[in-house]
Design a protein that fits this description.
- With 106 residues, this protein is α+β, with helices and mostly antiparallel strands.
- It has a single domain (2-95), classed as Alpha-Beta Plaits (2-Layer Sandwich).
- It has five helices and three strands.
- It has helices spanning 15-23, 27-35, 60-68, 71-80, 92-95; strands at residues 2-9, 39-45, 50-57.
- It has a three-stranded antiparallel beta sheet with strand order 1-3-2, with no helix packed on it.
- β2 (39-45) and β3 form a beta hairpin.
- The longest helix is centred in the last third of the chain and has 10 residues, at 71-80.
- The radius of gyration is 14 Å and the shape is globular.
- The chain starts with a strand and ends in an 11-residue tail after the last helix.
- One of its GO terms (biological process) is rhamnose catabolic process.
- GO terms for molecular function: racemase and epimerase activity, acting on carbohydrates and derivatives.
- This is L-rhamnose mutarotase.
- InterPro entries: Dimeric_a/b-barrel, Rham/fucose_mutarotase.
Length: 106
């Protein structure tokens, strides 16, 4: 099982909206994440907009590709994109760059 952690930056003026949207993630989005191999997926948000994401998956690239193939993800990403800083025209899910794990206490 791969453990994946990534960082993104939510625009400070959109943090409240970001929190609201994640308080009510669409059921079909939840189902798609689970079906494509996203397990123990968590998001942590600091008050300045720093977002830390964590998930476990058998194959991160396959999990990403699985979500990219879903219609619900396209709708979700289109709505979420404007809430982030420095995406340079990419979708939020395309901007996720896994951090290198340097320690894990099993």
């Amino acid at each position: 099982m791969q453990r994946v952690c990534f960082l993104l930056k939510v625009r400070e003026d959109r943090i409240a909206e970001y929190r609201e949207r994640h308080a009510a993630v669409w059921p079909e989005m939840r189902r798609a994440l689970s079906a494509t191999g996203w397990h123990n997926y968590s998001l942590f948000l600091r008050d300045d907009g720093l977002l830390v994401g964590y998930l476990e998956t058998e194959d991160f690239e396959a999990a990403r590709a699985g979500m990219e193939a879903t219609e619900v993800n396209a709708r979700w990403q289109a709505g979420m994109g404007p809430l982030f800083e420095a995406l340079d025209g990419t979708r939020p899910d395309e901007a996720m760059r896994p951090l290198t794990q340097i320690f894990h206490l099993a």
